[in-house]
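Entry 14. Two folds queued back to back today. First construct below, sequence then structure tokens.
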Amino acid sequence: MDYGKLPDGRPVKSFILKNTHGLKAVILEYGATLASLETPDRNSKLADITLGYDTLQGWLSNTSHFGATVGRYANRIANGKFTLDGKTYILATNNSPGGVPCSLHGGKAGFDKKLWSGRPVERPGASGVELAYTSPDGEEGYPGTLQAKVTYWLTDKDELEMHFEAETDKPTVVNLTNHTYWNLTGDPRQDILGHRLYLESKEMLPVNAGLIPTGKTEEVDGNPFDFTRERPIGERISAPVEQIKFGNGFDHCWVLSGEKGVRLAARAYEPKSGRVLELFTDQPGLQFYSGNFLNGSAKGKGGTPYRFRTAFCLEPEKLPDSPNQPQFQSVVLRPGETYRHTSVFRFYTRPSD
């Protein structure tokens, strides 16, 4: 359906996906964005568990990447540059935590600020939408014309699937993900510190003051980054350790355990509502961000100011700054190859504790 028009007059469509249990997702062509997702609590009351905006004008003001598909490279690239096949590419720098510049989520006008072309798709037990965007050679400094595609499926198993693909005509680097902000209470006026989180990971990537990985991995056993058993997000979010201070909370990448392929990466549980979110992915890393840069300046759905730590993000991805970290898995995509990424978000409820 028509959702509005961009300042240059191009129309933007929205797509509504529903399943047999009442779950409803709204997907926008602008930014290939998950605009909302309604799921039931343990009393079968539906609520939107994502942050975002009510109108296209709101989404145009989105500087926090609410719900968006981010790329061409999700997360940070140090100093906004990398070298590929002996040539150095200079990217737009749009973020400088700790005073250290980097290119974040594709640059000043990444994929979250582009108009994708969507079409509805169907399969047994699921409804979906396929969105495509062509990123021209040199956009934001990246080499190669990239044909990108993301497909959302809402299934009757109460799962939201996300499938990303990309092809290029020149060697380039690619790392696509979704950047939804979750609050399982269904009320973004409440913080997420009481959510209980489990991460299928025994290692994380320590960062410098610019939130760029140092290149090393660190075991989480017993430290504030240990979510190998379910624990409240707020339990150790203010621990007096350097890594917490750098991110003003959690804003780090965990190295996922398990075999290759789609496997469990994370589980979040909100005790009051009973809602549970499980994430399955085939990606090697998971950025967990606890909403530390939300400050109330963004007025979201219903005019609600999105305040400090009122949402969290779980971003499956290749490891941050991989183009500059040869010890990490390669993120290079060459002509004739296809980039693929699958993530599945499963929703259900638990009885009262």
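Second construct, same run, same settings:
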Amino acid sequence: MLDQNESKLTVTPARKKMPLDVRIVAWLGLISAVVAFLFVGLLISGLAHIPSGHHRPILFGIISLASDLSLGIHTFWVGAGSLICAYGLIRGFKFGWWLTFIFSINGICDSLLIFSDAQVVATISICFSLGIITWLLYRRRLYKIGRNPETGK
């Protein structure tokens, strides 16, 4: 026979709920991915295109995109990367923290490369990336980044 206290079942959530700031940043990553995928759709449909003679430097200026197809492929992978980063952040995975950090550093470098062509967009992108990097550094303990294995701090 079960005691009255033993008959009550307690249900624990399968995963802990992440703090509000983590969920906000993950939603921003999701929104960024949706916008990227919409832009890819515009490139594929022919409604958007790169002006002739225009080159878009990416990956720290190593590669230059000059066609709609190459820009579409790059934008698709950026959107997919944003989805992966958002998933990693919301689930509390270290790879999500690191990928978001790397994407933000790359975003700053790419924004500096297009600064002469689009100053307002580049400035907003740099500020956004710096904000994400600052937030990541503030939240590094949540993702167990930079912990000393001996002391656990």
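Quick look at the second one. The radius of gyration is 21 Å. Residues 20-50+63-138 form one domain.
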